[in-house]
Specification:
Length: 457
């Protein structure tokens, strides 16, 4: 009997795991273990990029596992899991907010629910059910009846870790619950406005998200920490998979650069670069403080500076001596506004200037070539052997986190995820042309653009 799909998945998973072993050995990485250890595994680092072969093999293996579940799981179980999935996030919240994960980290071999009840004043009966739910998702494991130990992944939830910052951002559940109402709301259903989102319905407000959060400093602080954590997650890939040395003859203008974290990371890794962080007036102070705190003190004074400039204002820095960079900015805006932002940069750029757009490209675009007007796509070399699982399956299955993030940003800001063709349309409308697309070891890519010359238009 021909079990084509099952056989294909088995072959693809075996290929991916074989490649993962070879790549890990080649990179001198220690063996993986799901159990919590004294030291973090190098593959869990958010400060260093994953070796290319390991990155490709890991995401292919994860895609196979997801597709196997899709193939084998009973549809009713899938429906029931979706029905009760609302408890996944609160269970992790309980794990963090009530001190459970931090307490368990002190007992790597395991701790009883009776001890947790005594020390944390929590009902052991209720706690057991919550912890068993967390064990299904691999955060912890039950070593004996009522005794639980952390798994390796739980380290990211400890005090000071970036995963904790993402979980602690408030209001997820309320906004998610408003999604069905939002999609059929008589005034909001076809609106592209950031004033007409699930966020407004969830919070009974007419204010857009960023106006609303100004009135709640605690909310703003926790949201900002989550955004910064996500930015830090993608930064190693951005730093490692684009030829930043080619920008050393120009000054990089980090447009809407927040507190300057990416600019600081670039300067610390590539000391020859000079960068300017542009933000709204009220953000310049926090950016300057962050630069002072995190920039390598051995760098030349003025390597990274901050200044006030709005995306929709005329760009004051003009000519070939500037490279302009937009990270995670344009997805916040509908097409007309995105075009307007890029037009400001096109007017300021010289013929040799680069405009770097760092965004997620939705949908599928080939690994080896993209039909660009001027140059082929730039990609990472992959050591992964030929696989029967498609690139589209890998994108859909192994990168669920960015898709969930895209849905959340849609619900709070009416953000717009775009395919390469949609990005190309916006970019060309602004008088720019894509000269290269750089796939990175993360879920975003860098679209390198320049101004269209008069004889090309």
């Amino acid at each position: 009997m021909n079990h084509l799909e099952l056989d294909n998945l088995q072959t693809s998973l075996n290929n991916a795991l074989d490649s993962l072993r070879v790549s890990m050995d080649g990179s001198r990485l220690p063996p993986l273990s799901s159990q919590y250890g004294t030291d973090a595994h190098p593959l869990d680092s958010m400060d260093q990029p994953t070796p290319v072969g390991v990155y490709e093999a890991r995401r292919a293996a994860l895609a196979c596992v997801v597709e196997l579940k899709n193939l084998l799981q009973h549809p009713f179980e899938k429906a029931a899991e979706s029905a009760f999935s609302m408890y996944d996030f609160p269970s992790v919240q309980v794990f963090i907010e009530h001190g459970i994960v931090d307490r368990m980290a002190k007992e790597p071999s395991g701790i009883s629910v009776k001890t947790l009840q005594s020390e944390l004043d929590l009902d052991s009966h209720k706690l057991t059910t919550v912890l068993r739910h967390l064990s299904v998702y691999g955060w912890i494991r039950e070593t004996q009846d009522g005794i639980f130990a952390l798994n390796r992944s739980s380290r990211i939830l400890l005090q000071g870790q970036r995963g904790r910052a993402v979980i602690m951002a408030p209001n997820y559940m309320r906004i998610a619950e408003a999604l069905p109402r939002w999609l059929v709301h008589p005034e909001f259903r076809f609106s592209k406005s950031p004033d007409h989102t699930a966020f407004q319905l969830a919070n009974n407000t007419t204010k857009p998200f960023f106006e609303w959060v100004k009135d709640d400093r605690n909310y703003l602080s926790r949201f900002s920490a989550a955004v910064e954590a996500i930015g830090e997650y993608v930064t190693p890939g951005i730093l490692s998979d684009y030829p930043w040395q080619t920008c050393s003859e120009s000054t990089i203008v980090d447009c809407a650069g927040g507190k300057g974290s990416l600019s600081i990371a670039l300067a610390n890794k590539f000391p020859a670069l000079r960068l300017v962080v542009q933000e709204r007036e009220e953000m310049v102070g926090p950016a300057e403080a962050n630069i002072k705190a995190r920039l390598d003190p051995n760098l030349v004074h003025g390597t990274v500076v901050a200044e006030a400039n709005d995306l929709f204002s005329t760009q004051p820095r003009t000519g070939d001596k500037y490279t302009f960079m937009l990270r995670h900015v344009l997805h916040d805006w509908p097409e007309a506004q995105a075009v307007n932002i890029l037009e400001k940069l096109a007017a300021a750029a010289g013929p040799k200037s680069k405009i770097l757009i760092i965004e997620r490209i939705s949908g599928h675009y080939p690994d080896t070539h993209v039909e660009l007007e001027h140059s082929p796509v730039n990609t990472m070399d992959s050591t992964l052997p030929a696989s029967l699982i498609t690139e589209q399956t890998i994108l859909n299955s192994s990168f669920r986190m960015p898709q969930a993030l895209a849905l959340h940003l849609l619900c709070i800001l009416n953000c717009h995820e775009r395919t390469l063709d949609q990005w190309r349309t916006i970019i060309s409308r602004a008088g720019l042309v894509i000269t290269g697309v750089y796939k990175l070891r993360t879920y975003v890519s860098i679209m390198e653009c320049r101004v269209i010359h008069t004889d090309e238009s």
